[in-house]
Specification:
Elements (H helix, E strand, L loop, with lengths): L3 E2 L2 H19 L4 E5 L5 H16 L3 E5 L7 H13 L5 E4 L11 H6 L12 H6 L10 H11 L8 E5 L6 H10 L3 E5 L6 H6 L2 E4 L17 E4 L3 E3 L2 E3 L4 H4 L5 E3 L6 H20 L1
Helix pairs in contact: 1-10, 2-10, 6-7, 6-10
């Protein structure tokens, strides 16, 4: 079997160009505020990528960078000010939060206006996924659905999800169920192999580097690798890309698969939030 490699960079570029044209045509001015607490260099790199992407489609991105010792109350006050700012259509708190703030993550995310929650992490948006009426949905879950729907029709498919995250696996399970998929979740890396061999859709977020090999994949399956590791001399995910080629029908590898699409879906949510605020 000839495995089709899912080109995340190309898909992301297509989405960004479509949004750039939409913003120009409609004359809207999407504004994103990103709060990055502390001075973590890797987090700042990701934030700057988001800023560049927002500016590409014709929007504005403000980076707010309080020190790592900011109190929870002061951080929430920053968010509440942005909630009231009519020119700010989307608010994003870069995770993970440092130090003791990490334990307050849920409270911090819940302080974001539901209509400006472009990451889709607000408890209200997460809860409304059960009824299919969330205002904004997790960018990671939307990215995965974008890739899957370019390969297969989810209805009737058996999907095996390995992991338990609130940004990908949990919302993705609900999106797939709403589309008529049969969903099986393995929160921990234990006993998943037999189910993976049955899965017509296999999404692997939790695990160990390159643990998914050809003997653990159903022939013709859509395989989405959502892991990320720095290995000597390379970046890799949970799927052994070389091994599964010839068995998987489609593969979103690491790097180059789901990653680039995440920011494109963030932009989609931002444009949607901007449109809602002006309608």
């Amino acid at each position: 079997m000839d495995t089709k490699m899912i080109q995340g960079q190309e898909i992301a570029a297509e989405i960004k160009e479509r949004l750039r044209q939409e913003v120009r045509k409609r004359g809207i001015d999407p504004g994103l505020a990103v709060i990055l607490v502390g001075d973590d260099a890797e987090s700042m790199h990701y934030v700057q990528l988001k800023q560049k992407a927002v500016e590409f489609i014709g929007g504005r991105c403000e980076i707010i960078n309080p020190s790592a010792d900011i109190s929870r109350a002061d951080l929430i006050e920053h968010i509440e000010q942005l909630n009231q700012d009519e020119k700010t259509h989307g608010i994003l708190v870069q995770l993970p939060l440092p130090g003791s703030l990490n334990a307050d993550e849920e409270m911090v995310l819940a302080s974001i206006d539901v209509g400006k929650d472009v990451d889709g992490f607000h408890p209200f948006n997460q809860g409304r996924l059960f009824t299919g009426k969330a205002q904004l949905v997790s960018c990671a879950a939307l990215s995965c659905m974008e890739l899957l729907e370019r390969c297969v029709e989810p209805e009737g498919k058996h999907a095996v999800l390995i992991g338990d995250s609130m940004d990908l696996i949990q919302p993705l399970a609900l999106l797939l169920l709403a589309r008529g998929s049969r969903v099986e979740i393995f929160p921990e890396v234990d006993g998943w192999e037999e189910a993976a061999r049955r899965g017509e859709i296999l999404v692997v977020e939790k695990g160990t580097p390159q643990m998914v090999t050809a003997d653990k994949v159903r022939e013709g399956a859509v395989v989405i690798d959502a892991g990320f590791y720095w290995e000597p001399g390379k970046v890799c995910g949970n799927v052994d890309t070389e091994s599964v080629q010839g068995t998987a029908g489609w593969l979103a590898p690491v790097p180059g698969g789901i990653g680039p699409v995440l920011i494109a879906k963030l932009l989609e949510n931002l444009v949607k939030a901007s449109s809602s605020s002006t309608s």
